[in-house]
């Protein structure tokens, strides 16, 4: 079954915002992200989760990049992680109060350094099966080296074709030529939700397949995928089912890019503009409601 992700499909899917609420009502996200070379990925994925409605976000990142990110936004809190001399997450880190978070997002800009791989492998094995998880970018690249060792059941993964190529050990060209096939195979093999990014991004649980209709070439820019991770994490925090959060997150991400490109052209949209234009995308859905 193949469905197009459009306004009609996501009609009425936005999480409710009851007036009698507090930040806990809308979920707690732990974002494990960033390294010395990719502090922007940690910033974008964190702010995006809050912008789409999560109540609270804590960024677990190398201690050396905290001053940089803190200077960019006062909205996020930090879990300082010991870093190596290369500015990546060291292997001996433990995250406090791990089970107090509703959603864990992992991988944006963390690098594939050996110490970080060891940390991530240990960290993933600690997670509670009830916690919702989104894995992106280097998190997926690290998983490719540990296939079969870590369960991805009910986890949302958000690879682009090159990352999926590493995970499946299939050529990138083959995946690009058969995107629906390999997205479905991924979800069936790992029992996960797969978001295969690209033109007309595909979302699947291994049975149902959704093909996105929003978005344009303005989204083909560094950091765009980090924003998408944040959007999906933020929707999961608001108690959406993983498949629904992925579908709505993908559509809003593309729609925000469409609206931003009307003002900036497709050439000049930054990843941060997708976050800034998200409210206008949400307003379109609310108006249709």
Descriptive account of the structure:
This protein is of the alpha/beta class. It has a ten-stranded mixed beta sheet, with helices on both faces. It has helices at residues 7-10, 39-51, 66-70, 114-126, 138-143, 161-168, 172-177, 179-190, 224-237, 242-264, 271-288, and strands spanning 2-5, 28-32, 56-62, 77-81, 103-106, 132-135, 156-157, 193-196, 202-204, 209-212. The protein has one domain (2-14, 21-288): UDP-N-acetylmuramoyl-L-alanine:D-glutamate ligase, CATH 3.40.1190.20. Helices cover 42% and strands 15% of the residues.
Tag the structure with descriptive keywords.
alpha/beta; 42% helix; 289 residues
Can you give me a brief rundown of this structure?
By secondary structure, the protein is of the alpha/beta class. Helix content is 42%, strand content 15%.
The total count of strands amounts to: 10
In angstroms, what is the radius of gyration? Answer: 18 Å
Total count of domains:
1
Order of helices and strands: EHEHEHEEHEHEHHHEEEHHH
Poorly predicted segments: none
CATH superfamily: Ribokinase
What name does CATH use for the topology? UDP-N-acetylmuramoyl-L-alanine:D-glutamate ligase
Q: What percentage of residues falls in helices of 4 or more residues?
A: 40-55%
* N-to-C CA distance: 26 Å
Identify the CATH architecture. Answer: 3-Layer(aba) Sandwich
